[in-house]
């Protein structure tokens, strides 16, 4: 197992180097996986595990459902600070962080939680290992002749059980924080043979753990190409995901070769392509620092594709082809073709001394088949005489279905007044809409004002 810097080791190292703890962690104190053993985070992890057991949570649970279990107990469940857990966004975030700490500290077994927010990985790359061509002599079990209308007989031959296969040298994956580019990336992944991991917002720790598992199982060096928006979240996501991968890789029994490279969007690309800016949200506390650092507001990946079609695909392709040999398959096919020609030549030379004898057997076999066909023709004539009589007897015996035996569906029990009914007159339907209690559409004052006038 690799050397692991945990909470105590980081604290000790900071003291020895006369530095601050923050100098030796990549993320914040509350998010860095290597710092999960901090007392408050340890307490939250243990709190989560107590509730996991007490509420009978099963493997494959989703955090949002656990949240509703926690808030619905007859006696409020207290957090480590002694305050009751409530149905608030703040407590929901606390639950997410507590579960994450439980996973980092290995209190919660792997695969206990599932990630339904992000897409399933699209897998097109997995190592098969080097496979060399393997010849096999067919017919070693002996000759087999049986009466049939095929007068050719099977002769011993040389075939290929296995053809040459050479893996690409790297396991390449493209990670992207959104699914709006899937129409470009999924076909490209299939064509180039890389894996695609896409989702909405920051990809979860579960995906990082799964990626390390794929790298461990595959055995090849893993190269992750990362794409994200140019905004505060988009700039933090690659580092956060890389840190999670680093953490799980450090816990493997064997050293892994994994790199993460961010290729889109960068400040330079935003300037080069003159991409439009979207004002950062006023509530985002990171906005002032982001503007000071990069001199601009947010820019989405979608803007690049909209204004420069094909450029997104080109940049991803160039990044992927740093590690994927696009001509490898054709070179392997050429070797397989040459070897197949050698097999055919060897078979032709080896079987030549026996060709005349096999031809003689085939001729005599053909004569037997001809005699067999004559006998079959006689039997066919006899069967043709009996056939109409048997058909007439079956038609006379076939029963008629009684339609009165068809079961009737039970009567429906629809609601008395559904929200919409296509049989209602227009004004009657409007009355049902008006009686429905809601708070109006979002941005109602900005939509369709000219129609209202």
The description of the largest β-sheet is:
4 strands, parallel
Identify the overall geometry: extended
Low-confidence stretches: 444-453
The total of beta strands comes to 6
Number of alpha- plus pi-helical segments: 15
Mean pLDDT, as a whole number? 88
Strand order of the largest sheet: 4-3-5-6
Number of structural domains? 2
In terms of quaternary structure, the protein is single chain
Radius of gyration: 35 Å
In sequence order, what are the helices and strands, one letter per element? HHHHEEEHEHEHEHHHHHHHH
Q: What percent of residues are in strands?
A: 5-15%
End-to-end Cα distance: 71 Å
Q: Could you please say which CATH topology of the largest domain applies here? A: Dna Topoisomerase Vi A Subunit, Chain: A, domain 2
CATH class of the largest domain: Alpha Beta
- Quickly give the structural class: alpha/beta
Proportion in helices: 40-55%
CATH architecture of the largest domain: 3-Layer(aba) Sandwich
Structure, explained:
The chain is an alpha/beta fold. It folds into two domains: 7-104, no CATH class; 119-381, Dna Topoisomerase Vi A Subunit, Chain: A, domain 2. The protein contains 15 helices and six strands. It has helices at 7-16, 39-54, 63-71, 89-104, 182-192, 205-218, 232-250, 267-272, 287-294, 301-307, 311-320, 328-351, 355-397, 426-435, 449-452, and strands at 134-138, 157-162, 171-176, 195-198, 222-227, 258-264. A four-stranded parallel sheet has the order 4-3-5-6, sandwiched between helices. Helix 2 (39-54) crosses helix 4 (89-104) and helix 6 (205-218) packs across helix 7 (232-250). The N and C termini lie far apart (71 Å). Mean pLDDT is 88; it is low at 444-453.
């Amino acid at each position: 197992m690799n050397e692991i810097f945990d909470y105590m080791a980081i604290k000790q190292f900071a003291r020895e180097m006369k530095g601050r703890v923050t100098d030796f962690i990549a993320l914040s104190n509350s998010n860095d996986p290597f710092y999960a053993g901090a007392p408050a985070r340890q307490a939250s992890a243990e709190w989560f595990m107590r509730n996991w057991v007490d509420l009978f949570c099963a493997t494959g649970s989703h955090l949002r459902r656990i949240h509703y279990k926690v808030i619905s107990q007859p006696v409020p469940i207290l957090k480590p600070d002694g305050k009751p857990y409530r149905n608030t966004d703040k407590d929901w975030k606390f639950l997410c962080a507590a579960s994450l700490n439980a996973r980092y500290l290995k209190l919660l077994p792997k695969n206990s939680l599932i990630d339904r927010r992000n897409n399933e990985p699209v897998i097109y790359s997995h190592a098969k290992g080097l496979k060399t061509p393997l010849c096999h002599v067919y017919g070693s079990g002996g000759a087999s002749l049986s009466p049939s209308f095929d007068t050719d007989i099977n002769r011993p031959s040389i075939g290929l059980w296995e053809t040459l296969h050479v893996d690409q040298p790297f396991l390449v994956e493209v990670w992207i924080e959104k699914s709006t580019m899937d129409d470009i990336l999924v076909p490209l992944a299939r064509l180039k043979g890389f894996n695609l991991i896409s989702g909405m917002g920051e990809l979860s720790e579960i995906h990082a753990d799964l990626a390390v598992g794929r790298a461990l199982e595959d055995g090849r060096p893993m190269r992750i190409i990362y794409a994200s928006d140019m905004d505060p979240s988009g700039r933090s996501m690659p580092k956060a995901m890389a840190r999670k991968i680093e953490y799980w890789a450090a816990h493997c029994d064997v050293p892994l070769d994994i790199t993460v490279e961010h290729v889109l969007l960068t400040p330079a690309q935003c300037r080069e392509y003159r991409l439009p800016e979207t004002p950062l949200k006023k509530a985002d506390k990171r906005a002032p620092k982001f503007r000071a650092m990069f001199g601009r507001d947010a820019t989405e990946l979608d803007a690049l594709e909209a204004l420069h079609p094909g450029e997104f695909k080109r940049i991803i392709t160039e990044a992927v082809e740093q590690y994927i040999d696009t001509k490898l398959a054709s070179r392997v096919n050429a070797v397989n073709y040459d070897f197949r020609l050698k097999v055919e030549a060897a078979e032709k030379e080896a079987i030549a001394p026996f060709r005349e004898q096999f031809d003689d057997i085939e001729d005599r076999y053909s004569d037997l088949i001809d005699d067999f066909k004559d006998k079959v023709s006689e039997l066919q004539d006899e069967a043709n005489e009996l056939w109409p009589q048997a058909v007439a007897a079956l038609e006379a015996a076939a029963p008629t279905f009684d339609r009165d035996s068809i079961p009737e569906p039970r009567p429906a029990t629809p609601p008395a007044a559904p929200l919409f009914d296509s049989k209602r007159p227009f004004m009657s339907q409007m009355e049902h809409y008006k009686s429905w209690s809601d708070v109006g559409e979002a941005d109602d004052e900005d939509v369709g004002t000219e129609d209202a006038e």
